[in-house]
Records
---
Amino acid sequence: MKTTKILNVDILSLTQQELLERLDKGVLVTPNVDHLVKLQKDKEFYEVYQQAQWVVCDSKILYLLSKLLKRSLPEAIPGSSFFTFYYMYHKDDPNCRIFLLGAKEGVAQKAMERINEKVGREIVVGAHSPSFGFEKNEEECYKLVEIVNRSGANVLLVGVGAPKQEKWIVKYRDQMPNVDIFMALGATIDFEAKTLKRAPIFLQKIGLEWLYRCLKEPKRLFKRYFIDDMQFFYYFAQQLLGIYKNPFQER
């Protein structure tokens, strides 16, 4: 498949419909501006990205900026929206069995109930909200793996924030042999449970969903969006000028 390189990430150049039709195995990650900034400094996160089979553009901003490159992306595929389309696409497929891992206590369970009611069958076969800092507790991680394996799920959505969710998937995926698809999808579980409201459609379309989320959670997101993520535009300008260098590539 063709890709579009933005900084040190090769993003698949495909539409949402193509992704729905082709996604059958592998790890799905959804880069946005925040990910790309982290991928300049976090070598482990970068190496996780190199192991992902499906790297799709989550961000309207990245999609618009890609038009300045030789090969632009066909569209943005926000992970939260994609997941809804994914389970509706597979609503009559008995071989699609999803597990939700993430969000605060009780939220994943609520999301499971809402999705199953919407679909009309138990497409989500299990849900669990891990404890805060679970990724540092190996015993809890092994218990989570066991819970997923016992559920019979073959699709695992992990929504605990980046880069934690991506690192956890790559570290433990081999211990879940019956899971074909791993999705790292941030706040998706919260959106499905309706505990977190998405931006109005018109803001999503013009690339301002991030601003809406920041206004909703300013204490948590202001620094990320208005300080940390501003570095992306410096790196991207370097790419346009042909002087950007991947910090993790051997020279």
Note: The mean pLDDT is 94.
---
Amino acid sequence: MSEIGQNISEVLQSLPKEVRLVAVSKYHPAEDIKEAYECGHRIFGESHEQELIKKVDLLPKDIVWHFIGHLQTNKVKYIAPFISMIEAVDTFKLLKEINRQAEKCGRTIDVLLELHIAEEATKYGFSLDACREMLEMGEWKELAYVRICGLMMMASFTDDEEQIRKEFTIASNFFDEIKEKYFADAPYFKERSWGMSDDYMIATQCNSTIVRVGTRIFGKRNY
């Protein structure tokens, strides 16, 4: 087995069965993704639409692509025909544009709402109050071509495991709150995407269902 395949195998073995792995392949060449694909992995995460489009053309069509980065509204049209999930929806404006482009493509796109819980100001996402306000307004219910499947967030970049655990727990509790209030009858609202290379094991203890791991699989990024 290749080194990348071995790395994926080790990460998968460390995960609970109910947690899915998104192999974060941004900044890594298509050959690396092909190597992981040949070892049986199918879910990959990218965060730049131009890089993603090039890879889609080069790689097998049964790959499940997650867009995990900050997405500008004017870029949605480029990925709408094929993207499986957009994980980082941070404004209602973006949600509406995804719906518009999905309708043009005749498909429904799964999305996650991104929360800003971490202490760094540079991170994107809804504050908890802004997310509550958006859901309470109810306009999202009229968007027939997007399906809100859960939440996504990134913990603070810190070695303080208690801080990381606290932030994941806030996200988990918030998921329970809005699941009960807005999505009780929506079985597809079930995803909690938190946990990356350095903290995914903590995330799995805080009810994560999706972890996004790159460095542990592909090594340092090739910028």
Note: Strands lie at 20-24, 43-46, 64-67, 85-89, 109-115, 146-153, 191-193, 210-213.
---
Amino acid sequence: MEKIVELDNFDRKILDVLAIDGRVSVTALAQRIGLSKSPTQARLRRLEDGGVIRGYRALFDPIRLGRDHVAFVEVKLSDTRETALAEFNRAVLRIPQIEQCHLIAGAFDYLLKVRTTSMTGYRAILADDISTLPHVASTSTYMAMQAVKEEGLVPVGPSR
């Protein structure tokens, strides 16, 4: 289990700014959080080295790329022993259309977020890939009509 990193208000401010603008310069970041450049840079390096900041990336607009068809898929497995879960986990990583995969405590075993270009594309992924994953017993699909909040921008803000 990973160790939780203690954050103070300046660390939280850094994360809040970076969540909105990951390309901000250290100088601008320092101005926005109210510290000078050197301590801001040191805090940023500590957050990176400690694994709090895992990386920086570009976010693409899936609608402009023609990938606006989103389905959520409940997956029930026929076997839920650790070896079966590990097999399923490894196999799911090989399907690029599966954006997210979560092991669930509930009436089903996994929840997948699948993004494709169309219903026809989704049906092919379901039939050829998802249904053939190791130990899949059944699936249920829910089609998303609109993304209200999707990018996961959660302000770190004060500790709760």
Note: The beta strands are 69-77, 98-103, 110-116, 136-143.
---
Amino acid sequence: MSESCEDSPSREEAEDAVRTLIRWAGDDPQRQGLLDTPSRVVNAYREWFTGYGMDPASFLARTFDETEGYDEMIALRNVRFESHCEHHLAPVIGQCHIAYMPRSRVVGISKLARMVEIYSRRLQIQERLTAQIADTINDILEPRGVGVVVEATHHCMTTRGVHKPGVTMVTSRMLGDFRIKSATRREFLAYIGNPVPGMST
């Protein structure tokens, strides 16, 4: 499935693994309703984890310099994403808010959304996802600052374990002006509805 893994198993091996899990769960993979399930699961995994075969930084490579001196905040709110936690392979569904203060270059907003999609379509923990998005923008665009806030629901705790639905996890990463200038940080948090308690001052 993954282009980045040299010893990636074959499709047949992946489907056999699904059959093993079905048997382990207590059902018969040969019954009519489950005959095509291994193939469907493998197809779903190929779609869910396409991020391994893509380079997020490449989507930020094409930038625009003709900004007429624009140097104020650029913010993208409510970028929905779907990911899977690396601990239980359970869905993580949420939204990402991104802002940066350009120094001389800007990038198309669809590229920012695509970058979120690529990083999220990997086995993840939310803290790493947040850092990867912010750090990539910072490294490629070299802006005066970057702010990223991620809000997500983790099905590993809503559908199993402690069974606590309605819980949202919030993570953030502030770099440059967003970290050292409280006014910049406040402006960003005001744009997105201030979802990070204690960070508005």
Note: Helices lie at 11-25, 37-48, 109-120, 126-141, 155-158, 177-180, 182-191.
